[in-house]
Automatic annotation (TrEMBL):
One of its GO terms (biological process) is thiamine biosynthetic process. In the N-terminal section; belongs to the ThiD family. It comes from Pyrococcus horikoshii. This is Bifunctional thiamine biosynthesis protein ThiDN. It is an enzyme of class 2 (transferase). Catalyzes the phosphorylation of hydroxymethylpyrimidine phosphate (HMP-P) to HMP-PP, and of HMP to HMP-P. Condenses 4-methyl-5-(beta-hydroxyethyl)thiazole monophosphate (THZ-P) and 4-amino-5-hydroxymethyl pyrimidine pyrophosphate (HMP-PP) to form thiamine monophosphate (TMP). Residues 14-257 form the Pyridoxamine kinase/Phosphomethylpyrimidine kinase domain. Pfam families: Phos_pyr_kin, ThiN. InterPro entries: Aldolase_II/adducin_N_sf, HMP/HMP-P_kinase_dom, PM/HMP-P_kinase-1, Ribokinase-like, ThiN.
Length: 446
């Protein structure tokens, strides 16, 4: 028996790696599904434009489907850019020979505005492909084209989803809300005579390849045996994360980040292990004199572009404190466990993204002097110079202070200190790329 699930994408290639089969394969990988491909068309494309389209002969498209289906087996498939009526007919004829679920993303126009389906092929799509669909995933404009209706809101989307299902014989339809007005991206699923809404906050980010990646995520999860409703739920979470964490590459619409889905959990585990080890080492060093009244924290943030809020920064729950003659971590390493130091590292990372770890220790003039003698770059901020509007804003002091200290010198600081204020203990912060580097610097100060 084959243990790994497989998903097939029948779609066009995007040389920019943002949409099409490239997006589909990355998405399949993110879900641990083995990806198979049948390329329909090769596009010369970047984030701004499509400059050339070379369609693959229909019999070659069919043959790609046949060979993988017969040798490897297909657990679920999707279609993307089908380009012309001949390819559509060939794909329909071939997929009919198999009984895998088929997700149809009725791709018509690229984000950049280029047509990806010939005008005269829309009828063929409706006639030959949609009746075979387990699910059709039109966006607002595609749903308008398929129904002839105008879609402005969720109610219109509901009517359109039902109309497409009833008129084409598709088993289910989801009208996507990425292009509808409003603060939320609401997708409307019509399946078995009932509606289900999928909601997510509309995020500012990278949207090239959203439709491809969303339908590929549904396909991967159908291949893994999830119900249609559950597969859509996971895909919705996946696409929202992918849009918000997209790398801003190119000069047009930047692409969805499919790897965030696996990279973030993998990085979190690595961070947890490294920081836990470093905290144990810190306890072993037992630097009693370095522990401030408020305790020490030791933090390690997710890499760029994933470090955004304190929940993306690991720290020690309850901090590290003095217990008699010993230095002890109160709780274990957790994401979201630090507030102050998390804000400090997030600000530092805006200037030096590779410097993801920090520790705070008791202030003393000797340590600042020792740091300078060791050749560390030292900077500071003065809480008494904090502007009133910053003082009044909850949680704004530390980001302000770190920014002031970083900008004070034109070199990356290893150490930043402040002398405190009324009711605020003075403090020294040590920065490094990782907890090991922070500990190495700290050792030189003992
Ligand atoms: N800015 C956004 N924030 C959150 N979710 C979004 C955003 N834009 C689109 N989505 C979601 O992404 C998925 C794809 O929807 P969209 O309407 O963008 O598809 P599409 O237009 O077919 O994409 P493409 O243009 O890549 O083909 C849907 O779940 C949609 O709700
Ligand atoms: C080969 C191919 N397939 C699909 C899309 C649609 O994606 P988008 O609308 O995000 O550009 C594309 N641009 N290129």
């Amino acid at each position: 028996m084959r243990l790994v699930r497989t998903a097939l994408t029948i779609a066009g290639s995007d040389s920019g790696g943002g949409a099409g089969i490239e997006a589909d394969l990355k998405t399949f990988t993110a879900f641990g599904v083995h990806g198979l491909v049948a390329i329909t068309s090769v596009t010369a494309q970047n984030t701004q434009t499509v400059t050339a389209i070379h369609d693959i002969p229909p019999e070659v498209v069919s043959e790609q489907i046949r060979v993988v289906a017969e040798d490897i087996g297909v657990d679920a498939a999707k279609t993307g850019m089908l380009s012309n009526a001949e390819i559509i007919k060939a794909v329909a004829k071939t997929v009919k020979n198999y009984d895998f679920p088929l997700v149809v993303d009725p791709v018509m126009i690229a984000k950049s505005g280029a047509p990806l389906l010939r005008e005269d092929a829309v009828d063929a799509l409706i006639k030959y492909i949609l009746p075979l669909a387990t699910l059709v995933t039109p966006n607002r404009f595609e749903a308008e084209k398929l129904t002839g209706m105008e879609i402005r809101n969720v109610n219109d989307a509901k009517l359109a989803a039902k109309k497409i299902a009833e008129e084409t014989g598709a088993k289910a339809v989801i009208v996507k809300g990425g292009h509808l007005e409003g603060k939320e991206a609401i997708d409307v699923l019509y399946h078995n005579g009932a509606y289900k809404l999928y909601r997510a906050p509309k995020v500012d980010g990278c949207t090239h390849g959203t439709g491809c990646s969303f339908s590929a995520a549904i396909t991967a999860n159908l291949a893994k045996g999830l119900s249609l409703e559950d597969a859509v739920s996971v895909a919705k979470e996946f696409i929202t994360l992918g849009i918000s964490t997209g790398h801003k590459i190119g000069h047009g619409h930047c692409p969805v980040n499919q790897s965030a889905w696996i990279e973030i959990p993998a990085e979190k585990w690595r961070i947890y292990e490294e920081l836990t080890r470093a905290v144990r080492e810190f306890e072993r060093i037992n630097p009693i004199k370095l522990i401030p009244e408020v305790g020490t924290n030791f933090v390690y943030a997710l890499p760029f572009p994933y470090a955004r809020t304190k929940e993306d920064v690991a720290g020690v729950k309850g901090r590290i404190v003095r217990v008699g003659n010993e230095v002890r971590a109160v709780g274990s390493v957790e994401f979201g466990a630090s507030d102050h130091l998390a804000r400090a590292i997030l600000t530092f990372m805006r200037f030096y993204p590779k410097y993801r770890s920090a520790i705070n220790v008791r202030y003393s003039e000797e340590i600042v002097e020792l740091a300078k003698e060791q050749g560390f770059t030292v900077s500071f901020y003065d809480r008494r110079e904090e502007p009133i509007e910053v003082k009044e804003k909850e949680g704004a002091t530390i980001p302000w202070g770190i920014e002031v200290a970083v900008k004070r010198i034109n070199k990356r600081p290893d150490v930043i200190y402040h002398l405190g204020d009324i009711g605020k203990e003075p403090m020294i912060l040590i920065f490094g790329r990782n907890p090991r580097e922070v500990l190495d610097k700290l050792r030189l100060l003992i």
